[in-house]
Write a structure and sequence with these properties.
Elements (H helix, E strand, L loop, with lengths): L1 H12 L1 E5 L4 H13 L4 E5 L5 H11 L12 E5 L4 H9 L5 E3 L4 H9 L4 E5 L2 H9 L5 E3 L8 H7 L7 E3 L8 H7 L4 E3 L1 H10 L3 H19 L2
Parallel strand pairs: 1-2, 1-8, 2-3, 4-5, 5-6, 6-7
Helix pairs in contact: 2-3, 2-10, 4-5, 8-10, 9-10
Amino acid sequence: MKKISIIQRIHQEGVVAVLRGDSWRQVVQLAEQAIAGGIKVIEVTMTVPHALKAIEELASRYAWNHSDPAYNAVIGVGTVLDSETARAAILSGADFVVGPSLHLDTVKLCNRYRVPIMPGVMTIRDIQEALDLGVDVVKLFPGNQFGPSMIKDIKGPMPQANIMPTGGVNLTNLGDWIQAGAFAVGIGSDLTKDADATDDYSFVQTKAREYVEALKQARNLF
C-alpha cells in the first residue's frame, strides 16, 4: 500500500527537509536544491504564502516512486493545524501530513484517506493517544527542548513508538539522535540559513549533502 511505502521511504531516507520561506516560488527553489543534494523527503510548511502552489508544483515534478532518480522524492505538508488544511494539501499532491500538535480530526482525516500523519508530541500521554489513534510516526517537537536521551526514555515503556525529532537537529547532534533510536529527523533552519543570508540557494544543496553523509555515518556505527 502507498501509505506503508511512504512511511518506509521516510525511514529509509532518514532526513526530512522542513522548508519555510517568504514565497511559494522560493520554497520550490529550496526544495529543488535539497533534492539535488540528496534529501529526498520535503515538507512544505503551511506558513509559506500560497503553500499549496508549492506542493502542486513539486508534486507535479517529483514522485515517491519515479523511475528517474533525479525526480524521485516524497513531497509532504507541514504545520497543519486542522483537517480542512490537511485535505486541501492532500488534494494538491501531498504524500504525508505533519502537524505541530496532536489534532484528532486531522488524524482521522488522514487515516480515512490512508495518508501518513505525523503529529507533534511532547509527552508520553501525547504519544499513547497518538498510538491509540493509529498514528505510525510521531514528531517530537520541539526537539531542542528535550535532547536525544528523550527517545531512549520514551522507548523504555513504548518501544513500538516511531519518533521523529524536529527542531534543533543539526549536523553536530544528528548522529546522537539516530543512535538514540530516531525513526528519522526533521531539519529546518539549519539547512537553509546560509542560503537565506546570501540569496545563494546552492548552499542548500551543499548542506543537504552534508546531512546525507552524516546520516550514513551515524547508521554505520550500529
